[in-house]
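This part of the workshop introduces the protein records we will be handling. To make this concrete, we reproduce a full record directly below:
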Amino acid sequence: MRSRNGQAANPARVSSLRRRTVQHDFSDETPEERHTRLQRADAVKKGFLYAWNGYKKYAYGADEISVLGKRPKTTRNGWGATLVDALDTLWIMDLKDEFWEARDFVAKLDFRNDGGQLTKVFETNIRYVGGLLSAYELSEDKMFLEKAVELTDILMPAFNTPLGLPWQMLNVTTGEGSSEKLGTASTNLAEIGSFQMEFYRLSQHTKNATYHEAAQKVLTVMLENNNPSDKNSKYVIPGLYPIDFDMISGKFTGSAAYWGGGGDSFYEYLAKTWILSDFMLERNIDMWSESIQSFKRFSVAQSSTGELFPGFVDGLKFYPYADTFTNFIPGTLGLISKLVGSDSYFKLAEDLLEGGYSVFDSMPSALGAEAIRYVRKNVPTDYFLLKNSSRIEVDKYGFSLERPYYLLRPELIESLFYMYRLTGKSMYADRVWSIWQGMQRNCRVADGYVGTVDVSVDAAVSGIVNSIDSTESFFYAETFLYLYLTFTNQDVISLDQWVFTTEAHPLSRKYVFDGTF
């Protein structure tokens, strides 16, 4: 038995993993706890409908809504990013009338009409292709699969490069690709390495290996062209792949490695594609294993107040900085740790989640900043290098607010959801509820929800809502979905039956993979 990359898959290990369950059975839940949980699920569903009705009134079929401006916004080629991204949320919340109405819109989409914009290939894959695939698997309506294939075939010219690495941007009319930085061949780790899940599943459904092979070739090229033992290589620590990448040479162009923005979904997809492949893609889990070991050794530090946080590594130098994207790590790490039976890495996931939640819990708004800087334990120079205003924040909160705004992002809610489903501990659900209440106070405005300027200020106290008119499609696709799944019945999208893409699109684990398509 071999995986698609040619490596032998251990039959006994694969069989054992296929039988293993990770989700807590929740049989110990009391009637009172169940009542509270379902009340919360209903409140979240009503919040979603409130936002959806605002979108429907002012921007239906548009990529996004300007909630404050009461108008549509074209940000993702005008193909209805919010609507497509939210299809699975509509289905899972049992909003079937809204789902079938959206279905009729999707059926008429013309992906050759680019809305006057270049197509961002990575974002189109995770929001549109992932959304269409999930809608197909949930509803079994083949139209969604046909549209996913149609759109992916339009994207495929982005991979027509010397090494088969995808351009960041694509003109869907001409098939010409480019970097986001015009005139360069630069890209980043997340944007070249986050096609694996959607393309693997597309190959399964179509019995066409082309998609899967294109996504996996990225890993092959990356490994073949970069070696940490090469003294001239920017790749220094095995498994910690630098963010900056040149897609023509296939080499890393910088030495900064990070599990947050620019790197996050690459690592996430290594592990989750392995699950989605029925545990057959050995190379994926081998790369994840090497990466998480180096992450634990080189990319994590304890703060002066005792919390554990990820950091930014440039070569061998560590920077105590974390953006909110790193909050995906505890959930994914917790899931993989349960699958492989690693107590030590599950403990790491729990500790990282405590650190991530402490940022939200320390804020009057109950919401977390886009990015923080902390001071490492026994490293006083971290403190003295800060500007005075940042020192004041460190003295008050234990960290400084490098980017103090909140943009409705889902990552911490996502990890809290995972930990709740994996352990059954109600404290994780209670924390999700606290964040939801913070959003109600600080992000809810007429006809929807928006970002908030400063998480250190709570609108309930100040009486002022300082808003950022930003409501991206992920709010409907990820944030609301993880909120709802935390509180609805736990057998809805069980972690033993589904695996989530980076955009929270659930893909079924029922499809057995024998190594071929």
Q: What stands out?
A: The domain at 15-70+299-503 is CATH 1.50.10.10 (Glycosyltransferase). The longest strand covers residues 399-403. The two ends are 14 Å apart (CA to CA). The mean pLDDT is 96.
